[in-house]
Design goal:
Mean pLDDT: 95
Number of domains: 2
CATH architecture of the largest domain: 3-Layer(aba) Sandwich
Number of strands: 15
Strand content: 15-25%
CATH superfamily of the largest domain: Type I PLP-dependent aspartate aminotransferase-like (Major domain)
Strand order of the largest sheet: 4-10-9-8-7-5-6
Distance between the termini: 34 Å
Radius of gyration: 22 Å
Bound molecules: pyridoxal-5'-phosphate
Oligomer: single chain
Shape: globular
CATH topology of the largest domain: Aspartate Aminotransferase, domain 2
CATH class of the largest domain: Alpha Beta
Order of helices and strands: HEEEHHHEHEHEHHEHEHEEHHHEEHEEEH
Length: about 450
């Protein structure tokens, strides 16, 4: 082990790590990045098949981002955003987002991460109902397989079973509906997709009625469940869920931390792609393309005006925000990243290469070990099910996926391993020739593992 590896083992606690082996295990140390490529400490290059972590949408190492960030530091590095103070970049970014967001989501609160954006959305919905004298509206409904963050509340909202380890999650006002994963659970009852999704939507209404609509504040959902395994509910499901929320006065929080800013060919996807009409949208990741940490919570004018209208000066403070909310450097980075996405027409580009990416990945379904490939534009996964069996993933499937992921890394491609899945979300700038390289690396890795195991 070299000095850096040894020092890493000795001191650095990695997020989402197995602490029982973290002091001995060699780690991937990424030292440099450019375009769609990352480079480890030895200089070996890899295609970044996951855009950092669903976030480096404009690609790595952009000079104009470096210049913008440096210039903002020279102009104004930081000042408090609390109460009556703010900065020009924060105002400009709030207006820029409001102009591009759907419906009347024109009020923006900044945070430092996706978790911060989700926390703010939940705190706002509680604050909103309290301000309307509806104190009992406090319950939150989420879904199994959802991922909403890593603070205690957002981890409690998340529903990935493998993440529910040694903690005391909030359970008294957080509830989970079953996962809307048709491929995994639709077979249980031998149902058609339509019937499965009707049943899933019905679970929401049943839960609201069980808790009492007067006690439910909000439903939070990713339009496509990302970290939970690229689970894509039907449009009919989205419509029904939207209508149920409206019927019972339950706020709809659309968590677009992954889906916003181009990954699906749109800046915001809730309304245009999924026919949702959210009261609140949360974003992060692609907001700054990962160059600087940042999150934002976009809130409906209608809700905001209900708070600010009648009882001017008498409503208690919305005591939510962070030292670095609307940090001028983060805001400048976000403005520039959005400018690049728009100037280079990256949403249009994703609509061109996205279907090619999914179609090319689908060719992997020829393998006996690949149960299914699913995805939309630049959000996709390969699901391993040895012998194409139906039902829950087995340890063999999970082991197979892990081996494929490892071989991809050796061959110079980083994918995101999760259970029996290999998840992919490359930078939006990827072209068709680079997609072909990704597919051929995965294909060769599958062939090798099939030879070894089957
Ligand atoms: C949908 C979704 N929401 C929230 C988060 C949390 O974001 P962060 O890790 O920036 O706190 C994530 C992170 O992956 C996410 O995928």
């Amino acid at each position: 082990m070299n000095q850096a590896q040894a020092s890493n083992c000795r001191h650095l606690i990695h997020p989402w790590a197995d602490l029982s082996v973290s002091t001995t295990q060699k780690k991937l140390i990424i030292a440099k990045a450019q375009g769609i490529y990352i480079y480890d400490e030895t200089g070996k290059s890899y295609i970044d098949g996951i855009a950092g972590m669903w976030c480096v949408n404009i690609g790595h190492g952009r000079e104009e981002m470096a210049d913008t960030i440096a210039q903002q530091i020279r102009t104004l590095d930081y000042y408090t955003p609390f109460g009556d103070v703010t900065s020009p970049p924060a105002i400009e970014l709030a207006e820029t987002l409001a102009k591009r967001s759907p419906l009347d989501l024109n009020r923006v609160q900044f945070s430092c991460s996706g978790s911060g954006a989700v926390e703010s959305a939940i705190r706002f919905s509680h604050y909103f109902f309290k301000s309307q004298g509806q104190d009992s509206k406090r319950h939150i409904i989420s879904r199994e397989d959802a991922y909403h963050g890593s603070t205690y509340l957002t981890a409690s909202l998340s529903g990935k079973k493998v993440d529910k380890t040694h903690f005391h999650y909030i359970e008294d006002f957080v509830h989970h509906l079953p996962s809307p994963n048709y491929l995994r659970f639709g077979n249980e009852f031998n149902e058609s997709e339509d019937v499965f999704f009707q049943r899933q939507a019905q679970y929401l209404e049943d839960k609201i009625l069980q808790l009492g609509a007067d006690n439910v504040a909000c439903f939070i959902a990713e339009p496509i469940l990302a970290s939970g395994g690229i689970i894509i509910p039907s449009i009919e499901y989205h419509r029904t869920v939207r209508d149920i929320c409206r019927r019972y006065g339950v706020l709809y929080i659309s968590d677009e931390v992954v889906t916003a800013f181009g990954r699906l060919g749109e800046l915001f996807t809730s309304q245009v792609l999924f026919e949702l009409e959210p009261d609140i949208i949360t974003v992060a990741k692609g907001l700054t393309s990962g160059y600087i940490p940042m999150g934002a919570t976009l809130i409906s004018d209608r809700l905001f005006e209900q708070i600010s209208g009648s009882r001017a000066g008498k409503t208690p403070y919305f005591t939510n925000g962070f030292t670095y909310s609307g940090h001028p450097v983060s805001c400048a980075a976000a403005i520039k990243s959005l400018e690049i996405i728009e100037k280079e027409n990256l949403c249009y580009h994703v609509k061109e290469v996205g279907p090619y990416f999914i179609q090319a990945l689908k060719t992997l379904e020829q393998f006996d070990s690949v149960g299914v490939v699913r995805g939309m534009h630049l959000m996709a996964c390969v699901e391993f099910r040895i012998g194409k069996h139906k039902g829950l993933a087995t340890d063999r499937d999970i082991d197979f996926a892990r081996k494929v992921d490892e071989l991809c890394e050796i061959a110079g491609l980083i994918v995101r391993p999760y259970e029996n899945l290999c998840i992919l979300s490359p930078p939006l700038i990827i072209n068709k020739a680079e997609i072909d390289i990704i597919i051929s690396i995965i294909e060769n890795s599958i062939i090798k593992v099939e030879k070894e195991i089957m």
